[in-house]
Design goal:
two-stranded antiparallel sheet, disordered C terminus, 338 residues, 4 helices, disordered N terminus, Porin, alpha+beta
Length: 338
């Protein structure tokens, strides 16, 4: 009988010890799963990488298509974004970002005869503000515990997730071309006769973008995630590269010039190579001939390595915050802070 009582006391002590040891792990598991998305909604985002342009200039050795087949790899330039991410609901987020992209294009990078003969080039910085809805798809979250303790239920917080997003933004661009070692703004030069008699209307340097994309992120610590993100911007302008419609008379462009750069404007409207430099005849660049493709608006993309930092809300640890109570059967309620 005495031996039985000693054995029962020993087993009770083991169970109590086990429960005390597991309490912080259990609380942590609850923090990451049931409370985390509600009380820790805010994240900071930073992405560093590269950007590229899909439009009329440069591209593959064929007629332009404005798709990824027309991507000129040598024209990848610096790009980044910084922003805020807010948890709307489990796996559903609202992102708001500031994005910088430098893009460019050059007809001397293609072997397609008419594009190469056109001999146009440009570069532009793009500044964008956007808002996006993002959905998370966990890909290796598994049942278990953050500390991989067997038998403890929950979701491993250090998994990887796949994300897809869609949004809307506004951006500013300013195409420039280089002449005599200087980069000159192209819009004031009206290289396609914008705003001149018989020419198209002048374009604005502010437009709307539709960012779409996907990313893959891996939780590194409880508050830090790292990953890759690929996004593309559909836009509502065909003038990011200052090329869209047809050739306008360079003589009239110089005549109507109001910038004091008439000669530069005339040249940059039609710097074609011509037969003497391996191009085609002047018929291809005569006024009214195709200079760009106004049926396809321009687009640009970003490929970045991104980091996300979770701004933890200390919740009950804050002074004066309400403490949660857990009751045990047969004993007084005790306060447990987590």
């Amino acid at each position: 009988m005495v031996i039985f009582e000693i054995t029962r006391i020993t087993m009770s002590a083991r169970i109590l010890t086990y429960c005390l040891l597991m309490l912080p792990f259990w609380a942590s598991s609850q923090f990451f799963n049931k409370v985390d998305w509600k009380e820790n909604r805010h994240q900071l985002e930073l992405g560093l990488g590269t950007s590229n342009f899909l439009g009329d200039l440069g591209g593959k050795d064929a007629i332009g298509t404005n798709d990824f087949q027309d991507l000129e790899v040598s024209q990848f330039k610096f790009g980044f974004f910084i922003g805020h991410k807010y948890t709307l609901y489990k796996k559903l987020y609202l992102r708001s970002n500031f994005t910088f992209s430098r893009v460019g294009g050059n007809d001397n990078l293609t072997e397609e005869a008419f594009r190469r003969n056109r001999n146009l080039h440009f570069r532009s910085n793009i500044f964008e503000l956007n808002a996006m809805i993002e959905y998370e798809i966990p890909i290796n979250f598994r049942k278990g515990h953050i500390y991989d303790i067997k038998g403890v239920k929950g979701w491993n917080a250090k998994g990887a997730s796949f994300y897809v997003f869609l949004g809307i933004g506004g951006f500013y661009f300013n195409p420039k071309a280089q002449i005599d070692g200087q980069w000159i703004e192209l819009r004031p030069l009206r290289t396609e006769g914008q705003g001149l008699p018989g020419g198209p209307k002048e374009y604005r340097r502010v437009s709307i973008s539709i960012p779409v994309g996907l990313s893959l992120s891996k939780r590194i610590t409880d508050v830090l995630s790292m990953g890759l993100e690929l996004s593309y911007r559909y836009t509502f302008t065909d003038y990011i590269d200052d090329v869209s419609t047809v050739y306008y008379s360079p003589y009239d462009i110089a005549l109507y010039d109001e910038t004091g750069q008439g000669d530069a404007a005339a040249y940059l409207s039609n710097p074609s190579l011509g037969p003497q430099q391996g191009g085609v005849g002047s018929y291809a660049t005569a006024p009214g001939q195709q200079r760009g493709d106004d049926t396809d608006d321009d687009g640009f993309m970003l490929l970045t390595i991104k980091a996300q930092y979770l701004l933890k809300d200390n919740g009950p640890r804050r002074k004066g915050a309400r403490r949660k109570k857990f009751k045990r059967s047969g004993s007084r309620s005790k306060r447990v802070i987590f």
